[in-house]
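Handoff note, outgoing to incoming analyst
You'll be picking up this chain. Sequence as last confirmed:
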Amino acid sequence: MSGTQFLVLSNAVEGRDEEFNTWYDEVHVHDVCAVPGVTSARRYDLVQFTPEVPEGMDAVVPPPPPHRYLAVYDLDGSPSEVFDEFFARMADGRMALSDSLDMATVQMSFWSPRG
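Most recent structure output, in case you need it:
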């Protein structure tokens, strides 16, 4: 399943962004990349942008996204095998989640290239 990407949209618990980003960058990315089938990771911060909308064009501007952070993981393994290993590592303590991660807002999805 070469070329598959695993996208994770997330937020920090309110007021804990610094702690969240330190944990994510220094611990979590390394834990995830240690899982067989995960080959690399990149993190992104949402760029705050409010376009100047011409009069009468309000309806074509989408609302801002609900997430402040995006992680993109490249996979060379199957999503089901990778996800099974995530759960195994969380269950046995090899991959601990931080309480600075707002779990209520996390969204995850797997994507494969078209064409």
